[in-house]
Each structure stands twice: as structure tokens, then as C-alpha cells.
Design a protein that fits this description.
Order of helices and strands: HHEHEEEEEEH
Structural class: alpha+beta
Helix content: 25-40%
Oligomer: single chain
Strand order of the largest sheet: 3-2-1-7-6-5-4
Length: 235
């Protein structure tokens, strides 16, 4: 869903069953942005935008405003039967694109039989982190009616449980990551200690052994030179 004119309503309007057909693979260690806030009821009751939209007020169909009235009526009815329409709160100017169950067998989201000349619509979605339900009726000829937002407590409970599970899984992954990091550091310290001891042993092995007794130098023998005999001639 998109709120087009109210800046406060632009953030976080999601359908309940969003399908990411072309989602790119994500890293294994990532925290997905939560769909809802931790305390949805408190936000719904305290937020100014929700306060205004929770009061029943006039709404009108906003689709195909440049077309003739007859064509707009036909397109509005056709869109409702397909399960979607666009409406705006007249008092605040907040535009909403509604998507709902259009099955003709249960009339849970779109009911043409409840009141003659009108269609009753119920649309569930997440707006600004809060599960809400738009409920109202629109005249098929005037393309105007009344409606309001309500807190969808049933959906809120489901999303709260999913949020708690998501946070717990994220915390568990953090704990597993920290345990792996701790084990890696401890293993590295053991390897460094073992390497240090091994280096010391290798250094001691390479040193030459000390002699038990100091080596004595060999005694020098005097060299005797015989003198030449007297009267010898050198030629």
C-alpha cells in the first residue's frame, strides 16, 4: 500500500503476504528489518495520524479522475471485483491503495450484497509498523462513502510472535558467532604457545655441547739448527 499525499503515511505500508520473486541472495548473517513495531497497540493509540484516521470520516474513490463519471463507476466496480481500489480520506487528504479478498463465496473483503447500491470493503495491511484494518462502505454511484482505520489485533498478535521469533533467532546467531570467535581465539593462543615451546626446544638442540675438560695446547718442541762446519765453502 502507498499513502501518496501524507508524508507520515508513506513509511512502512505493507501487505501481509508480500512475495519477493526476484529477491537477490542475502548474506547469511543479516538482520531483516522488522515489519512491525514492538508495541503496536500503544503506537496506534498515541500516534496523531492513527488518531485522525481511526475516526469514521468521509472517503472518496480517487481512481481515473480524468475520466467521465460513468466510466469511473464501471472501473471502480470492476476494481472491487478484482480485489483492489484507491480511496482518500477527505478530511486529511490521506490516500490509500486497498487490497482485499474479492472471493464471491465469503464476502470477507468485498461485499456487494450487504447494502443495496453500496459496496462494503475490509482491507488489512501494515501501516507505519502497525497492523491495521480499513473498514468502510462506498456508494457505487456517487463513489463516496465513510470509513476508518482499526487496529487489527488478530494480525498484530501473529506479527508480534513472528517479531519475537525473529529477534530470538538473531540473538542466537549472535551467540553462535561469538562462541565461534572465542573458540578461534583460544585455538590461536594454543597454537602460538605450542609454537613458542617448539622454537625454544629447537634452539637448545642446535647449540654445541660444552666440553668436560678444557683442551690443553700441544707443547712446542724447540727446533735445533746445526751450525755450518768451519772451513766449509759455499759455491
Amino acid at each position: 500500500m502507498h499513502a501518496m499525499s501524507d508524508p507520515a503515511a508513506l513509511a512502512g505500508m505493507l501487505p501481509f503476504d508480500s512475495i519477493g520473486l526476484y529477491e537477490q541472495p542475502k548474506p547469511r548473517f543479516i538482520f531483516k528489518m522488522p515489519r512491525v513495531v514492538p508495541d503496536q497497540k500503544a503506537k496506534f493509540e498515541s500516534d496523531d495520524l492513527f488518531k485522525r484516521l481511526s475516526r469514521e470520516s468521509e472517503v472518496r474513490y480517487t481512481g481515473y479522475r480524468d475520466r467521465p463519471p460513468e466510466e469511473r463507476q464501471m472501473r471502480f466496480t470492476s476494481g472491487c471485483r478484482e480485489g483492489h481500489t484507491e480511496i482518500a480520506f477527505i478530511s486529511t487528504g490521506t490516500n490509500l491503495q486497498l487490497v482485499f479478498d474479492h472471493s464471491p463465496y465469503n464476502n470477507r473483503g468485498c461485499d456487494f450484497q450487504k447494502e443495496n447500491g453500496k459496496v462494503h470493503i475490509v482491507s488489512r495491511f501494515i501501516m507505519n509498523g502497525v497492523c491495521v484494518r480499513w473498514r468502510g462502505s462506498i456508494d457505487l454511484e456517487k463513489l463516496e462513502g465513510i470509513g476508518c482505520l482499526e487496529l487489527d489485533e488478530e494480525r498484530a498478535a501473529i506479527e508480534d510472535a513472528a517479531l519475537r521469533d525473529q529477534i530470538e533467532r538473531y540473538n542466537q546467531r549472535l551467540r553462535d558467532f561469538e562462541d565461534k570467535q572465542r573458540a578461534y581465539r583460544e585455538h590461536g593462543e594454543e597454537l602460538r604457545a605450542h609454537s613458542h615451546v617448539h622454537a625454544q626446544r629447537c634452539h637448545q638442540t642446535r647449540q654445541p655441547p660444552h666440553a668436560a675438560h678444557p683442551a690443553h695446547p700441544h707443547p712446542t718442541h724447540p727446533v735445533h739448527i746445526k751450525p755450518h762446519s768451519q772451513g766449509a765453502l759455499i759455491s
